[in-house]
Amino acid sequence: MNTYMIQTLQPLLHDSLVLLAAPSQAWSANHGDMDGSGIQGFYHSDVRLLSEVEFRVGGIQTEHIATTSVDAATATFTSVARNVDDRTADPRTRVDRTRTISAGSLDETLTLTNALSEPVTTTISVSVRADFRDMQVVKAGMSGSESPITLEATTDTVRLRAGNLTALLQAPGAAIFAADASATFSWAVAVPAKGSVTVGWRVDAHDASAVVGGAAKEAAWSKVMVRSGDSRLSSWVRSALGDLQSLRMATRLVPNEVFLAAGAPWFFTLFGRDSIWAARMLLPLGTETAASTLRVLAALQGTHEVHETAEQPGKIMHELRSKTFTIPGENVALPPLYYGTVDATPLWVILLHDAWKWGMDDSEVEALLPNLEAALAWMRDYGDSDGDGLIEYIDTTSHGLANQGWKDSGDSIQWRDGTLAEGPIALCEVQAYAYEAAVAGAAILEHFGRSGEGWRSWAAALKARFAESFWIDSPDGAYPAVALDASKKKVDTVTSNIGHLLGTGILDARGAELVAQHLASPEMNSGFGLRTMSSDSAGFWPLSYHGGSVWTHDTAIAISGLRREGFADAATSLIEGLLHAAEGFNYRMPELHSGDSSGAVSSPIPYPASCQPQAWSAAAAVSVLSSVLGLRADAQSGKLDIEPLPNSPSVEAKGLRFAGEALSVTVGADGTVQRT
Asked: Structure pTM?
C-alpha cells in the first residue's frame, strides 16, 4: 500500500479583493462573497475569524455586475436579483451591498431596490462560518484552529469565542439561526414598487492579547493633492495615500505613537525595516510619521544580549507579534519580539537624520540622542561581529531568518551560477547604510555639542574597506558584489542591491557611474521597474521572490539614489517603468510583480502571492514624486532645493510640508518652478 504526503500551498492573492483598516482586513472574491478557500475571510489581529460570508436573495446567489471602491476600507458590490424580477431582458431588481472595514469591525448594508410597478416580497440572508484560523496556518495552506470555538446566540446577537479572541455579530431585525461555528441572518422583506429596502449586519472583534492596534487616520494627508501632465503619477499618489491611511497602527506599549504596518495580509504589524523605509519616503508630507516611528522603535531598542531573540544592546527590532511566529514546514519560529535584522539599526539613524533635515523639532531629536548613540555603537560593537570593519549577519538560533537584509528569503543571496552563498553574509547595501548612518549620526551629535569625529573616522575606514573588498571586474563594467560570503569571497551576482548604494556617500563618482550603467541595462531594467537580479544570472526567474521580480520600493530607492548622484536619464527610465506598472495594477502597486520585460508583455504580470497593499510600495509613490520634483531638504539652513527632472511633465503638488509649514510646488511643462 502506498502512502502519499499532501503538499499544502500558500494561497495566491492577485485575484482577490481586500478591504482593510489595520489591524482588520477582509479578503473576498470580486463579487463580495467569501467561501473559505485560500485567503478569503475576515481577519482581525492575524487571525481569520470568519472564513465564509455568503449573501442570498430569495435563497439564490445574486448575479454580480460591478464592484466600486470608495477607499481602501470601503467597497460596494452591485448585483441583480433576477430570481425575484420579471422575465424581461432589463434587470429591474438591483442589490447594492456596501462593506466597510474599520479597526476591529466589518459592517455591511444591503439595499434591495425594486424598479417594478408592483411590490416584491422575498428574503435577504447572510450566512457566516467561523474558523478562528491563525494567519500563518492560512498562509501555509493548512486547516484547523488553535482553540475550540464556542458560540452563544440570543434573539439579536451571536457571540463567537476562541482563545483570546471574540467576535460579536449583530443583524438588527433579522431572524437568527446559529449552531456550531455558523450563523444565518434572514430578513423577510417587502420591497414597495419603485422603492427600496435596506438591512444590515456587522461583526465586532476584540483580541485581549493584542500588542498592536489601529490608529486614527492622518488628517493632514487628506490635504495632499497632486496634479500632473502625466495623470499616472497623480493617480498613483492618490491611491497610495488611501492605502497608507489604512495601514496606520500603534503599539499597546506606546499607544499614541503611529507607525505604518508592513502590509496585508501577512504583515499587519510593526516591522523595523519596512516601517522605517515607509516613513522615510513620506517625509515630504511631514515629519510626524517619521518621528513617531522613531520613538516606537526606540522604546523597543535592544538593551541586552539575548541569543534566542537576537537582541543586542542598541539594536533595532525586526518585528513584533503577540506570540511566536512560525512558518510551518520551514523550521522558522520567531519569538514575539524578534531582532533578526542587520539593516534596521543603521536605517533608524538615517531616518532620524533625514527627519531632522525635513524639520523634525530639535527637542524631539535631542530626546533620541541616547538611542542614536546606542544604535551607532551597535554597528561598531555587534554589527561587525568578526572585527573586519564590515557589518555582517548570520542566524545562530537555527530557527530564525537565514537572510536578514531586506531580501530575506532563503535563496536571495546566490552566486551567478545559482548556488547559494554561505554566511556570515556582509551585504553591500548594509555597508552603505552603515556609512551613511555614521556620517549622519556624527552631524546630529555635533549639532548638539557632542563629538562626532570618531564616527566620521569609522565611516571613512568602512568606505575604504568597501572599495577594496566589494568591486568585481567585468567586461560590461565593474560592479559591486551583492555580498561577501563566510570566506569573504565576492558573491558575483548583479542585483538591485547595488542601487541602494547610490546617494549614501560610500561610492566615488566613478563607482556611482558604473552602478548607474548597470541599473540602466536591459538585464536589470525590465521596463516595469528594476529587476532584483540580472536576467543573465543562472538563478534568474521573473517570478522569483528575490531572484528576478520587481519590487516597487526597491526601484524607488534606486531612483532616489540616481537623482542624488545626478543620473537623470536612468532615473527617468525607471520612473517611466513604475508608472507603466502602476497603470497596469490600477494604481495599487503590489509588494512585487514579475520581472518580465515590457518589450515582451504589454502589462505587468502579477507575482501571485504578493502582498497588497504594502507600506513601502505605497510610500514609493511619494518617493517618486519627490524624485520628479528633485526635493532636497535642509531645515537647519531653512533651505529646500527643488530641481525638477529635465523634460518631466508638469506637476502641481499641494499639501507638502517642510520645517512644519505647508508647501505647494508647481512645475510647468517648461521646467519653471513656483512655490507657495
From this structure: 0.96
